[in-house]
Specification:
Radius of gyration: 22 Å
Shape: globular
Strand order of the largest sheet: 1-2-3
Oligomer: single chain
Number of helices: 16
Helix content: 40-55%
Largest sheet: 3 strands, antiparallel
Distance between the termini: 37 Å
Length: 402
Amino acid sequence: MIQYQYKPENFRLSDPNKHQLKDLKSEEMILSLGPQHPSTHGVLRMEVVSDGELVVDVVPHLGYLHRCFEKHAESLPFNQIIPYVDRMDYLAAMNSEHAYVMGVEKLLDLEGKLPKRIEYIRVLVAELNRLASHFVAVGTYGLDIGAYTAFLWVMRDREHIQRLLEWITGARMLYNYIWVGGLFYDLPVGFEERCTEFINYLKPKMVELRELIIENKIFIQRTANVGVLPMALAINYGCTGPVLRGSGLKVDLRKVDGYSVYPELDFDIPVGKGEMGTVGDCWDRNYVRVLECDESIKIIEQCLIQLTNDHKRTTEFNPQALVPKKIRPQAMDLYTRAENPKGELGFFFRTDGRSDIPVRLKARACSLHNLSIIPEISRGAMLADLVAIIGSMDLVMGEVDR
């Protein structure tokens, strides 16, 4: 029995191209970059119109993961949505949980009422996850443009972070650790000391990473003056995170909104300055990510000092003491946001005051806005540079196709 009969028009009907062959000039052609190509960072398909080696137009095609986060959220209680939040930007699950949970706590008027130890633990694990996310961004970007060693180095160091977070949560990437009103569990005994050892190990490795990639002549030639994103264009497209800061705008929600205990911590906001090329090019975006790793290390060190001194563990500390058994907020509309490794992750809540299930939960994904800018800065570039431009955006498709 024939289970499936191939029909050539099926693909054209399910995922139609924007450009048609009849509309092309004689020297132009349509290329499909992805969705299986490693340099498209997962299941992204780019419809590329090229004139030889020059890019005439790029059309991103979305919709291959079918994550359906927002529809799931409309049928689940607030506390059961956290595991689905993890699966959007699966490389930065702690940061995503932090953003979502702070929103629900605003709905319940719990903001600013949690014990400081909980807040410092949240920031600690979020910054560890930011480090791990940036390591993947920088390492895979090296792969995109032909540098293999750097990928092995950063994945080696990322593995230490994964094991630390697994020690806390029992999970490797999708944690469900930051709960509404608290945490799933306190830090394991000895975690602060082990984390301090890791930070001391990591500092000289960051110097090596900068020498190997960022200051490498070949890397500079492949990324400087490529994919230049002017600040005004980045703002108009809603770009955030390292993509926006790489264009020279010094804005970070950890400073702007001052949420959690970030106002009590000392750290800087790196921005692109065009040191190797033009402000806002691919080199600047990656340089900002490397500098942010240094700032995350500073934040982690300060959190560890607080967690071993003023807010050290006690037998009376219960991280679930303020966790509500039933989450039924008043009827309201609320938007909350936080600084994820890739930019601003926001959640719009609509509640009816009767149910513990949100009427509407809209996610504002930073990767979607950062992806939307690619056609604007790719026209006229070389086809090989298009891969470099896509990689410099640090996209995660689980967040785009939510």
